[in-house]
Amino acid sequence: MDDSLxxxxxxxxxxxxxxxxxxxxxxxxxxxxRLNKSNNDEIFVVREKKRGLFKWRQEDLAGxxxxxxxxxxxxxxxxxxxxxxxxxxxxxxIAENWxxxxxxxxxxxPETVVPSIYDEAxxxxxxxxxxxxxxxxxxxxxxxxxxxxxxxxxxSVFQLYLRRLSRPQNNLDGVFSEVSQFVSKNKANDYEKYxxxxxxxxxxxxxxxxxxEMFELPLAKDPTNVELWSQYLDQIYKYSKKDHTLKQLRxxxxxxxxxxxxxxxxxxxxIPVWLTFIYCLYDLGNSQLxxxxxxxxxxxxxxxxxxxxxxxxxxxxxxxxxxxxLVIRQRIQECDLMNSSDYDSWKTLATTLLAFExxxxxxxxxxxxxxxLFSDIDKFVNHALENNDIFHTVEKTAITIFEKLDEIELxxxxxQGLVELFNAQxxxxxxxxxxxxxxxxxxxxxxxxxxxxxxxxxxxxxxERILLEWLSFAQLNESSEANKKLVVRADEILKAITEYxxxxxxxxxxxxxIGRKRSLEVRKEELPSKKQRTESTEDFKRNRELFTIKxxxxxxxxxxxxxxxxxxxxxxxxxxxxFKENDGISCRVEFHSEQEVLAALTKGFKKxxxxxxxxxxxxxxxxxxxxxxxxxxxxxxxxxxxxxxNVISARFPSQKAKHDRRFCYIEFGDPQHAMIAKxxxxxxxxxxxxxxxRYTLKVEISDPSRKRERNESSHSNEAFIQNLDFKIxxxxxxxxxxxxxxxxxxxxxxxxxxxxxxxxxxxxxGFINFKTDVGLENALKLNGASLSKRPIKISRSKSKxxxxxxxxxxxxxxxxxxxxxxxxxxxTLTAQQLRSHITQNVGDVNKLELFPKSxxxxxxxxxxxxxxxxxxxxxxxxxxxxxxxxxxxxDLLQKLHNPSTAKTTHNQPPVTDNSLLAPPTLMRRRKR
Length: 928
Hints:
A hairpin with a 2-residue loop joins strand 2 and strand 3. By secondary structure, the protein is of the alpha+beta class. Helix 21 packs antiparallel against helix 22. It folds into 7 domains: 211 residues, Serine Threonine Protein Phosphatase 5, Tetratricopeptide repeat (Alpha Horseshoe); 81 residues, no CATH class; 110 residues; 67 residues; 91 residues, 2-Layer Sandwich (Alpha-Beta Plaits); 80 residues, RRM (RNA recognition motif) domain (Alpha-Beta Plaits), CATH 3.30.70; 122 residues, RRM (RNA recognition motif) domain (Alpha-Beta Plaits). The N and C termini lie far apart (121 Å). The protein contains 41 helices and 24 strands. The protein has a 4-stranded antiparallel sheet with strand order 2-3-1-6. A 4-stranded antiparallel sheet has the order 8-9-7-12, covered by helices on one side. It is 56% helix and 12% strand.
């Protein structure tokens, strides 16, 4: 070996000793040692050192096996080979690795093969759906041999077979056949007795097989599907028997890591599988085991900030474990994660490190950790300032820690650095202001902070907020005269801000105009089509909170015209809503543009008639509500949310598209009430007063950008099930059958009166609503599965629009003698809401169909007299802001054939002849 190789080898040995947590140092040393053919022993020593700190990857296995093959001494080769397979089944305890180890053990050291080895293998592999048979076959073969020799009783072998039958596997039928042959051969006289037990276990396992096949079948085709493996682990955690959950999770986890016969360790796309497994261990309450696998996660991904942060959080429950933390801290420093990781990942780790070090200082009083803490804060804050994190998470964490340690000067030093570098960020100034307040600064010192902020007020991202905070502070802490002067000054500053922004907008307009001229050179085919442009703009056609303000402390006599006149200099108002609030009057004003809003904000703290008003931007005051009981009226929905706070508007979607759109927007006068409404009603179950079914409300803070997503998802998670057994299949049976697919929100099994009389539970089909699209996808995989000895057909449910393409055909099915037409029906009403209203006011409805585009409805009653009664009760009745008009079925047909006659105003009923108002029963008498 030449001198240069000797020197490089020595240098790499030193690097491995100095920086033991860098895996590349070991790899480089192994490559050097390989060049020295006479030094095989050290190669395996280095490999073992690396294995102690890092999990084996595919390249490690390949290299290890190459090094074994290069050993010339057979006895030594066998020994190293056996050690390799022993460690491999410890690292990755899957069936194939266990079998390789057992085969080598039998070949090389048969005297050491004892039954406990097979028991250990079975513990690791019996839940391997695809390959557990490899271990079972060994165990069963040995058990049968011992039985033949008289060393094992029949019952012991039979119990072993029962255990095997109880485990889901891809050859369950074959195992059952083996059991049958074994019992037939050895207990022919008691065959039925034993096979009843075996059959019971077989049937029980067979029922659970479909839940495993939902994942096993697609994974057999695509073994590297990370998302599917993660879902599989999650489903095992949710639905397996608790005493078996851990075994099944562990087996499936290691199967995922060795999917397709290749070690997937170290590949970043497999991190979700690791995290799913670890989080399942958390939920099982096994924090010790979770920590063990977190260590393995770090050994697999030594440069993952997320892994280190998660591990530190795990040991944070017991800060006395400082030695383990110090080892992790050393690894983090050696890997230089601060400079080698993306900032967002690193800042999570940085704040976790600082929090742990602070707890050790504060709770345990460890002086050494004080040095670690101060050193890390200095490094981390400088790094954070360089990376311009808009949230300043690390800096704020450091400031909070210094405050808790009563190191106020050090905290203020960091704040001064923040203010100098980010003086155009409103939140930085507000954080400075709050810091001063917390730490007992005088009113003069706090005012000085606000004065300093004025240096960059024009370029600031939210200057109005700074001024409002300053004015609020001054009202409580300054004299009346000083406060008045500040109001005048704030008004001048706001005018300057508005002028500055207007100038900036003009400059941007000129710049954009030049850009548009240049963009005309773009090839025509690269531009979006007219349809695409329309679709993209429709999503944001109306965002009521985008250009909206709230005005408070208005006089009680205020009208919309008063408000419009007050803001006429700012621009045209789009919508004004006045409402009572805190024994006074407030209003919500919507403008057309950002410039109009900014101009309106400058009028804050001015006199409106005799009242000094306050003006603020109005955000996140609206909740989006869906999945309320179908028959719940619009007034009932408003009343329900009015219990939380002042509802200033409730908007329901038009049903003209015939989608049966069951959602609405509830707007509160205070954004805080919207948050309370979400907390109070989201996921709350409410019973439908009409059919007593329960529905789970979905309530979210409104986000107009998600409007399309919500509308399109209304039917996206519903499965349509066909070929159901009429007399056997109930909702409970369906729920049990599909429970493994995902959380079920609702099951509907339509059945008519004739079916009920015959004892039917359904009409051969049904609908299942899943909470997520994953649940629906899992259900679709069961298409063709057997339920009550029938192959069922499963497909996506079609939307209501698809089911209502030919309204005229459906009209012919309505009985003339029992039916009425309704006109001037508010197009936001759903069929269920209208049905509920009519049932409560008139009588039972047999069927009802809405024609929202014609603002009409067709209603068939169960009893003919109710049709006549409806004309007298419903005619001229107000419903959802409209005055209803009643007619005959033929009147509706006439309007549908001649749509122009269907156009009505909101205040006037459609023009019609007198006979239109007559009850259907009276019309029949006239014909006679």
